Amino acid sequence: MKWRTPIFALAAAALSLASDTGVQEPSLREAARNSGMLIGAAARSAQLSEPAYASTLAREFNMVEPEDALKWEIVHPEPQRFDFSQSDQIVDFATRHGMKIRGHTLVWHRQNPKWLTEGKFTSTELADILEKHIKAVVGHYRGRVFAWDVVNEAFDELHPGELRSTLWRDQPGIGPSPGAATEALPVSGRPYEYRPYQYIERCFRWAHEADPQALLFYNEAEAETVNPKSDAIYAMVRDFRQRGVPIDGIGFQMHIANLHADIVSIDTNIARFAALGVQVHITEMDVALPVDSNGNASPEDLQLQASLYREITRTCLSHPGCTAIQTWGFTDKYSWIGSHSKHTQGAALLFDRSYHAKPAY
Predict the structure, then answer these.
(1) Which residues have a Cβ under 8 Å from the Cβ of 118 and sit 6 or more positions away?
(2) Residue 340: its pLDDT value, please?
(3) Which of 164, 316, 326, 355 shows a CA-CA span of 20 to 30 A to 188?
(4) Residue 147 has pLDDT above 60, yes or no
């Protein structure tokens, strides 16, 4: 891995970027060029035709991820039909602008089409559908997408440390019931002891078969600190690494909603996962602020937001194993925060609705 430039040099470069009128040189992308760090954003294909959106994305980031275009309901809308039109737009855009591409996500309990959720498939049928989906999507972008969020948010918030009840786990599920300790794992043919996250393992193996060169990540919310959920994920990743399951990284989403983050715990958590030999990516960062009826945050809160972005970036930079920082979108004009919180929160990203850099930038 390349040596990273000292953090004070990166910070100084970043401070020189923002002005009252927008962005000055160098861009975030240029500031990170020699740091060994990837700086990315989730993007929407429909907005690529907007000049300010496209130019800001290409100028500021060296990595991009489809925000929704690779989720099942869009990419696999019918049982026998895949639609890569939206994701192809983003991948083609990234290729033209020399950007790395993350794929998100192969398996999630949300945004699935009705044919899948209401299909009443047997366990064998569901496993076959899932395997074919993973291999079709990963195979379509073989050699182009460098990293995949293979499984997203499999662990429960209400019962930390446990897998959530989902189509993949138990409706009807693609793993054996507890106690079925002698069934063979189809992808290896070897007997195994029952593990509650068996379906996750199978997904990683299938993705690896489709593109052995791609980096494979498990992605999760509310697991960036040391807590029961991250403890359970840590145990899973450690088990995978010990048994040769092809997992290369952990993604911490880092959606922050209360202007507070336990930096010490985040630092400790990144360190312990990196010690397992996996990369850490911050994959979906945003910092929501209280906003008025016009969607505007106070100057004081914008400065507090900037402090959080700075501290989390500094923490990532301090660990060689933390190799990427990505925000969930980049302009407040197209942010999920304002659309999901009845407009009491917003202003969560690096650029305002007019693409002007904010203090966090």
Answers:
(1) none
(2) 55
(3) 164
(4) yes
**CA dist., res. 48 & res. 39, Å (int):** 19
Q: How far apart are CA 148 and CA 28, in angstroms?
A: 23
**Residue 137 burial by Cβ neighbours in a 10 Å radius (0-12, 13-18, 19+):** buried
Catalytic-residue membership of 183:
no
CA count, 13 A, side-chain hemisphere, 14 = 23
Q: Which of 60, 67, 201, 284 is catalytic?
A: 284
User: Which of 176, 186, 228, 242 has its CA nearest to residue 209?
Assistant: 186
The active-site residue out of 60, 65, 153, 220 is: 153
Question: DSSP strand E in the chain: where?
Answer: 18-19, 22-23, 38-43, 63-66, 100-107, 147-152, 215-220, 249-252, 255-256, 279-287, 289-290, 322-327, 345-346
SS3 171: coil
Would you give the end-to-end CA distance of the chain in angstroms? 26
- Domain spans of the chain, in order of start: 7-346
Give the SS3 label for residue 15.
helix
Q: Is 125 a catalytic residue?
A: no
- In which residue are the tokens 């202003």 written? 347
Say whether 269 sits in a helix, a strand or coil. Answer: helix
Chain segment 93-129, per-residue pLDDT in tens: 999 999 999 999 999 999 999 999 999 998 889 999 9
Q: From residue 101, give the alpha-carbon distance in Å to each of 55, 79, 246.
A: 17, 26, 19
Q: Specify the 3-state DSSP secondary structure of 66.
A: strand
Contacts of 26 (CB under 8 A, 6+ apart): 13, 16, 17
Q: Is there a contact between 90 and 64 (Cβ–Cβ < 8 Å)?
A: yes
**In terms of Cα–Cα distance, which of 250, 297, 243 is closest to 273?**
250
Strands (E) in 187-313, as ranges, are 215-220, 249-252, 255-256, 279-287, 289-290
Residue type at position 75:
V
Cβ atoms 244, 229 nearer than 8 A = no
